[in-house]
Amino acid sequence: xxxxxxxxxxxxxxxxxxxxxxxxxxxxxxxxxxxxxxxxxxxxxxxxxxxxxxxxxxxxxxxxxxxxxxxxxxxxxxxxxxxxxxxxxxxxxxxxxxxxxxxxxxxxxxxxxxxxxxxxxxxxxxxxxxxxxxxxxxxxxxxxxxxxxxxxxxxxxxxxxxxxxxxxxxxxxxxxxxxxxxxxxxxxxxxxxxxxxxxxxxxxxxxxxxxxxxxxxxxxxxxxxxxxxxxxxxxxxxxxxxxxxxxxxxxxxxxxxxxxxxxxxxxxxxxxxxxxxxxxxxxxxxxxxxx
Length: 291
What we know:
This protein is of the alpha+beta class. It has three domains: 7-75 and 123-147, 2-Layer Sandwich (Ribosomal Protein S5, domain 2), CATH 3.30.230; 78-110, no CATH class; 151-287, no CATH class. It contains nine helices and six strands; from the N terminus they run βββαββααβαααααα. Strand 3 (32-37), helix 1 and strand 4 form a beta-alpha-beta unit. Helix 4 (124-173) packs antiparallel against helix 9 (267-287). It is elongated. The termini are close together.
């Protein structure tokens, strides 16, 4: 079973006069890239949230947004006036000492300073986290299920493409006997047109033909290609998603296909090899989004 790295989950709930929304988005990335946006009251929980996302979503670019929509005015943060005044006096002193003018929007800037806003009740942070944690688990669970569902569709397509490569491998075998005869005739004609008949050593000719036929033999590559495809399907059916391993096996499949193409010396076999390469490229594109 494979999972897509693309996922989406959303959960929301109302409690204590506010609506909380948790939204999780995931796309493909080689690393675990977390981007988290939290309300101030949950900042101290960021490390725990990162740990949850890393464990359950494993890998990818993951965006998490937790937002509050407050309905009850009593739950709004309170401006800490004494802190704002103290900040302003410090800014004013620095302005007089340096000659730098205080900007008109200084109040907006001061409201972003630490402790400029405060909750009326400190205990609401823990109460909020209990509710948010449940919503976070729900949203992440939906994102995981999204990955599983999309992974099933991807798996169906990937299996189809691997089987097409195996079918092409079988078709390729039909042209090998004719290819051998063509190669033998070509080498014999080339020799007869360049060397006088009385100078030709028939035994030596046969030895050279055998040498070249062995050099262009693709049986070993065919066996390895079939083994790689079987191993690929085996890893595809494992319980855990194996995107990185599948990517490595696809490289080995490509290496064997390329070698067959370089040894082909036959238009029909080259045509089949081109089709196999096309199917493999489609597989690799899918694997970029496999967890």
